[in-house]
């Protein structure tokens, strides 16, 4: 399938590569010291629960989160998910989801607005209320407060009850609405009339619970006033010292609000009139007391925990955007009163008085960081909960994303300790059962060289924070990248640092780091009067570090492979790694695999160094033979090598039909793949720059299904990047036009056709930023499968026969690459595409592997040829062959 000239050129290149490798083999140097690494940690059972809210029931801990997901644990380290997301009617938590929550869905959250074709049930809070009076007159129930949402402002908070913490929960009432208008109106993609009389406000007025509407709720044209009024999401509840129940809620918009609650009924106690609290915070007759934020500044996911050892209520709020590059970060305030004022370490009130840059307001607990022992750094940790266990240990629970170019997220749990001023500080590493020494630590333990991170106060998430190096000297001075003084209190874990004239107070804590070994290190965590948190982790010696990295690599290099292997050039604690291969024609020094017809054994040798310490380690790998038999021809295929000279891109598939470059989309040269499709879009662009495929692409699709495959290279670090942007979408003519099928940049695969829909949204591996990867998704009568580089990363099994009935998919006439607006999403901000192929059958897993193998062969040929031609000073990238 490849041209003969490619084989000859590749053969020459391989010969030169082998000769070069023979001349550059590393020396076999072994460090003399014995490494005291310790035993391997037991791998933790991880879960992905967004916006986790913690509750303890008996000897079990539960986290409940958005999208109707929840998990449980007995040790706060290993979690097991027990829910099934939006599945209905057999939903674990709600049974018949649509029917049960119809009271809330009547306003927002089901097949409407932003969640057209699906649901949006977010950020629940669960607790056991012994005072709740059930419908049968008995007392006590587990209560779940949740929110449903259709736009950035139109949402609702409702509650449901159960006699079992794991449900099912039965709907009771919807108590808070937002996004309503003064007159009849409709949001985009919605048939819901947003006039306030369609909420519970009219009934409250009729029953004398509210003295009419408030002019503060509306702008001059009768729209909802988002600067003053909240978005009704993210409820969390807590009891004060008098046993009175309170609810806090809100997101961006008008801020975070607090309402008194009746714990016998679960209903809200509305203030009934505007005013100002004794502490100066604004009171709204319906929404309650504003305790944080406002004026559309960022802030969501509020949570309050009371600590009787300090007498403070601690308020947590998360700022910025939730994506991996959005800067999501947790802020902390405290108050002696449940309704505020809540202030930070610098004395700022959490409730804003005007629109401003709020980055300096609130103690920032953490930003985007990476210690040397971590394989991958952390990004956008936020939307937390917190609790104090029966042993008085405080914990912080949140979801975090990672510095790996994806939007994957997982739950993390960290211990917290109060400093001398009564502020909780967060332990740098996740909870692993460690107990802080009440008597503190010795000078030998505390002094030494530390990795140092200052989390600052910025809300930007574009980059990782700098990991610096400091020395804590025995004479209590700090040298290195940061200078100052430090001290500790004899007989306690308290510590203090003065850096740049700012005083930071916190604790020393010996805890397990997050390496794969049982390795305890001294850490410190402190907060400053400037609202900045600083962390430190004591470092290992060079000889220990290289041996640790050699052992760590053992877990990361596979014993068998069929796709390219990631061979890192650097490791933990700034170790350097170089690689050689015993058979570079099969696996080269960069981990690129050229599979042969049969299996081949290859030895990869890593040389690991830091300073003068050097060690080598061998890894034996069996490279599996390729699967060559695809025997399926795409109906449409666009490799961008051929064009009409204008906006048309020629098709090499079995059907007749060219694609069309729309807007500024163009064919450009890529050093790795030759000619490719380049798409760039401004912020919030919709159907602007993309590739339009033939309108009959889905005509004649049967229950055998279809497959979309393509090389993609997405810049997920671009400021305007949105993870829901479509890589590929087909619809019946734009927004709210069904049938629809799509795959987005987060690799969510979807179909909604003829009244039946399915979503493959539980994706195990996402795209890596600015990297060519092959994406495939298949749909047939049995469900959806999503593949990345030939490996399945997500699926949804469901009877989709109705989707294909009577050629219903032929109604899809608007087919695009790099664009999609079925839910009002924007076009992809910056991406490249290549070899876009459509098949009129759902390829099996083996066929997808064969497809990827063939595509990878072509990619390898192009890369090698381009490298050779570049050495010769020749530019012939247009010679890339087609399959």
Automatic annotation (TrEMBL):
Among the Pfam families in the record, one is Laminin_G_3
- Residues the record annotates as the site (Important for catalytic activity, responsible for pKa modulation of the active site Glu and correct orientation of both the proton donor and substrate) are 234
Q: Which GO terms describe its biological process?
A: carbohydrate metabolic process
**Signal keyword on record:** yes
* Chain ranges of the Atrophied bacterial Ig domain: 559-624
Could you confirm whether the keyword Signal appears in this record? yes
Which residue positions does the secretion signal occupy?
1-31
Q: Which GO terms describe its molecular function?
A: hydrolase activity, hydrolyzing O-glycosyl compounds
Q: Kindly give the InterPro entries that the UniProt entry links to this protein.
A: aBig_2 (IPR046780), Abn2_C (IPR032291), GH43_arabinanases (IPR050727), Glyco_hydro_43 (IPR006710)
Instruction: Kindly identify the residues recorded as the active site.
Output: 51 (proton acceptor), 300 (proton donor)
Residue ranges of the Extracellular endo-alpha-(1->5)-L-arabinanase C-terminal domain?
428-536
* Source species, domain of life: Bacteria
CDD domains given in the database record:
GH43_GsAbnA-like
Q: Which terms are listed as keywords in the entry?
A: Glycosidase, Hydrolase, Signal
Q: Which PANTHER family does this entry report, sorted A to Z?
A: ARABINAN ENDO-1,5-ALPHA-L-ARABINOSIDASE, ARABINAN ENDO-1,5-ALPHA-L-ARABINOSIDASE A-RELATED
- Name the UniProt record assigns to this protein: Family 43 glycosylhydrolase
């Amino acid at each position: 399938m490849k041209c003969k000239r490619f084989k000859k050129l590749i053969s020459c290149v391989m010969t030169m590569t082998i000769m070069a490798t023979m001349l550059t083999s590393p020396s076999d140097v072994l460090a003399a010291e014995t490494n005291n690494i310790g035993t391997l940690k037991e791998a933790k059972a991880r879960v992905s629960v967004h916006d986790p809210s913690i509750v303890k029931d008996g000897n079990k801990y539960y986290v409940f989160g958005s999208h109707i997901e929840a998990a449980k644990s007995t040790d706060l380290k290993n979690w097991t998910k027990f829910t099934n997301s939006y599945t209905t009617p057999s939903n674990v938590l709600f049974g018949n989801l649509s029917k049960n929550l119809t009271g809330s869905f009547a306003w927002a959250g089901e097949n409407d607005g932003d969640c057209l074709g699906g649901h949006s049930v977010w950020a629940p809070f669960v607790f056991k209320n012994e005072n709740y009076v059930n419908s049968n007159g008995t007392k006590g129930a587990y209560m779940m407060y949740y929110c449903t949402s259709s736009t950035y402002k139109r949402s609702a908070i409702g509650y449901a009850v159960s006699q079992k913490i794991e449900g099912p929960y039965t709907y009771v009432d919807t108590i808070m609405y937002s996004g309503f208008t003064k007159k009849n109106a409709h949001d985009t993609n919605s048939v819901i009339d947003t006039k306030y009389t369609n909420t519970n406000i009219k009934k409250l007025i009729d029953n004398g619970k509210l003295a009419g509407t408030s002019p503060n709720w509306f702008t001059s044209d009768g729209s909802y006033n988002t600067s003053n009024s909240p978005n009704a999401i993210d409820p969390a509840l807590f009891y004060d010292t008098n046993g009175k129940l309170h609810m806090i809620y809100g997101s961006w918009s008008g801020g975070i609000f607090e309402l008194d609650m009746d714990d016998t009924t679960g209903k809200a106690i509305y203030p009934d009139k505007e005013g100002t609290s004794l502490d100066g915070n604004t009171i709204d007759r319906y929404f309650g007391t504003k305790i944080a934020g406002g004026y559309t500044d960022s802030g969501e996911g509020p949570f309050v925990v009371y600590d009787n050892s300090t007498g403070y209520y601690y308020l947590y709020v998360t700022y910025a955007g939730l994506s991996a590059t959005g800067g999501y970060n947790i802020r902390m305030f405290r108050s002696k009163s449940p309704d505020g004022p809540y202030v930070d370490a610098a004395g700022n009130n959490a409730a804003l008085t005007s629109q401003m840059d709020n980055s300096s307001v609130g103690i920032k607990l953490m930003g985007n960081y990476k210690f040397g022992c971590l394989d991958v750094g952390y990004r956008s940790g936020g939307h937390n909960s917190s609790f104090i266990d029966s042993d008085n240990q405080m914990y912080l629970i949140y979801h975090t994303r990672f510095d790996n170019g994806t939007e994957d997220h997982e739950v993390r749990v960290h211990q917290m300790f109060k400093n001398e001023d009564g502020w909780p500080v967060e332990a740098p590493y996740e909870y692993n059962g460690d107990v802080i020494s009440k008597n503190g630590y010795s000078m030998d333990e505390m002094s030494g060289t530390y990795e140092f991170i200052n989390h600052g106060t910025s809300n930007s998430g574009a980059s990782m924070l700098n990991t610096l190096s400091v020395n804590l000297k025995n004479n209590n001075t700090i040298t290195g990248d940061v200078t100052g003084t430090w001290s500790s209190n004899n007989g306690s874990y308290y510590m203090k640092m003065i850096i740049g004239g700012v005083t930071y107070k916190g604790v020393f804590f010996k805890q397990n780091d997050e390496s794969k070994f049982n390795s305890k290190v001294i850490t410190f965590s402190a907060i400053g009067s400037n609202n900045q948190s600083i962390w430190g982790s004591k470092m290992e010696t060079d000889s220990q570090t290289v041996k640790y990295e050699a052992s760590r690599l053992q877990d990361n290099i596979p014993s068998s492979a069929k796709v390219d292997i990631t061979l890192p050039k650097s490791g933990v604690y700034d170790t350097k790694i170089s690689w050689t291969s015993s058979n570079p024609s099969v696996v080269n020094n960069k981990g690129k695999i050229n599979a042969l017809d049969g299996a081949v054994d290859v030895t990869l040798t890593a040389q690991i160094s830091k300073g003068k310490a050097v060690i080598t380690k061998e890894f034996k790998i069996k490279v599996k033979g390729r699967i060559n038999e695809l025997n399926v021809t795409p109906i449409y295929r666009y490799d961008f090598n051929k064009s009409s000279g204008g906006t048309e891109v020629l098709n090499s598939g079995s059907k007749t039909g060219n694609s069309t470059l729309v807007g500024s989309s163009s064919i450009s040269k890529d050093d790795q793949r030759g000619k490719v499709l380049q798409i760039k879009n401004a912020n919030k662009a919709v159907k602007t720059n993309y590739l339009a495929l033939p309108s009959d692409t889905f005509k004649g699709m049967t229950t055998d299904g279809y497959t979309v495959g393509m090389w993609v290279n997405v810049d997920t670090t671009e400021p305007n990047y949105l993870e829901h942007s479509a890589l590929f979408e087909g619809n019946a003519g734009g927004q709210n036009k069904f049938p629809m099928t799509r795959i987005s940049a987060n690799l969510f695969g979807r179909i909604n056709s003829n009244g039946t829909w399915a979503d493959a949204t539980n994706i195990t591996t996402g795209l890596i930023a600015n990297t060519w990867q092959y994406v495939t998704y298949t749909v047939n009568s049995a469900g959806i499968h999503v593949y990345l580089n030939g490996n399945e990363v997500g699926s949804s099994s469901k009877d989709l026969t109705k989707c294909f009935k009577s050629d219903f998919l032929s109604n899809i006439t608007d087919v695009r690459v790099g664009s999609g607006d079925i839910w009002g999403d924007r076009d992809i901000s910056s991406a490249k595409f290549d070899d876009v192929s459509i098949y009129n059958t759902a390829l099996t897993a083996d066929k997808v592997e064969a497809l990827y193998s063939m595509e990878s062969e072509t990619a390898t040929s192009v890369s090698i040829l381009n490298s050779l031609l570049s050495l010769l000073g020749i530019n012939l990238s247009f010679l890339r062959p087609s399959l």
